[in-house]
Amino acid sequence: MKEIKHYINGEYVGSASGRMFDNINPANGKLIGRVHEAGEAEVDAAVKAARAALKGPWGKMTLDERSAILHRVADGINARFEEFLDAECLDTGKPRSMASHIDIPRGAANFKVFADMVKSVPTESFEMPTPDGTGAINYAVRRPKGVIGVISPWNLPLLLMTWKVGPALACGNTVVVKPSEETPTTTAMLGEVMKEAGVPDGVFNVVQGFGGNSAGAFLTAHPDVDAYTFTGETGTGELIMQAAAKGIRDASLELGGKNAGLVFADCDMDKAIEGTLRSAFANCGQVCLGTERVYVERPIFDEFVARLKQGAEDLVIGPPDNPASNLGPLVSLKQREKVLSYYQKAVDDGATVVTGGGVPDMPEELAGGAWVQPTIWTGLADDSAVVTDEIFGPCCHIRPFDTEEEAIELANSLPYGLASAIWTENTSRAHRVAGQIEAGIIWVNSWFLRDLRTAFGGSKQSGIGREGGVHSLEFYTEMKNICIKL
Ligand code: NAD
Predict the structure, then answer these.
(1) What DSSP string describes 16-72?
(2) Confidence class of residue 225 from pLDDT cuts 50, 70 and 90?
């Protein structure tokens, strides 16, 4: 039986309490292995190791040395690409075709991108006059923030974790990572890669476990963590912010969304359908940036609905190793229960179910998996919970609109503000509408196109702070101003 342990101070260790939980394959409901659950003792050991490493060799390394090691970490992931791919697909059930293009390569690339970026970011300098005429010079330097607590979700486990660990380490911090209890494996494996790459012991630590009253809460309650970076649900973000307030620690929060797609009659319909299909159904709808509300200008509404329906019905539902499959299961039966409760609610609220709405028939060996049908609704009221809550499943509601103003108002009508996609061939309209959407990321005629140098994050209840490019450096470093009187 496979056993997943914590990685603390360069060693894999079990929990002193002996507490463990099951790691389940969501494609068939079978046990993959058992995972040690960290208690306060393991979290404390990990934080102490991270603190010691900060003062030790990692803190004394030059930028070039650190950067070279992080390049080796990326190379190390790529050298074990198939192993990482197997592990990610086993934990999440996602198609190999997706994880081999997105999760693993981008998970590795996060180390190289930030290792290079830290070397080329300038700081500021100001000359100032003084009353005695000699003047003074101010210049800024960046220093690591310290020990960073990283808490990550299950939807893109390696990618979203390294998106934080990459820049945190590049800036000279040390980390204690708490991956999602649903997807513990690739984060655990990264410990081996770190060791092989020459990352000093204690720089990268992993504690496994749940959120509340478990490893996550123990980590956010630990007084010797300097800052937290979190990706997950908005409600969890609120708890983490509360915990971080004690001791005035910084928190970067990448939270939930209920993202709108706006499809104008002057769009290129092929592009809009292709992009909306991906944004609603990729990763079985478990992408924070995904579109769950689609607003379509009335003249093309019927055609759009018919074509999206066809696209959804053409998706191939299947296990990771089926090369044809492009729709895997949800991450767990618990997540399926949540998604199916919204499928039921849509019916109760009077939706027209355009397609899907239930559980697909699967072969016997997959029947225990967390499968759901891709689902499209029309006809719901704007205040139905199906239209206002983040469902995080392969589904969307489509509603017609008549004017640009109405489309913008609908897009901005919820407390979330993560992402939006606009489909139009009219460039003036694209600029005009994009400028008015209340979201951190707005795509025009595309979706999920990410330049890692650009700012990433949510507005309103979708988050606080921006990561990506120099914005990651803002969070993972402390800027100091040094003033020299001449
Ligand atoms: P979640 O909030 O349930 O869990 C995320 C992590 O937080 C897990 O590791 C979990 O164990 C931990 N956690 C839970 N309660 C905690 C507590 N009280 N204290 C400390 N840690 C705690 O989120 P999830 O279900 O794993 O992920 C899906 C959510 O993540 C969705 O809402 C999605 O929109 C969001 N998400 C956002 C982004 C983004 O960049 N904005 C990206 C991906 C996912």
Answers:
(1) TT--EEEEE-TTT--EEEEEE---HHHHHHHHHHHHHHHHTHHHHS-HHHHHHHHHH
(2) very high
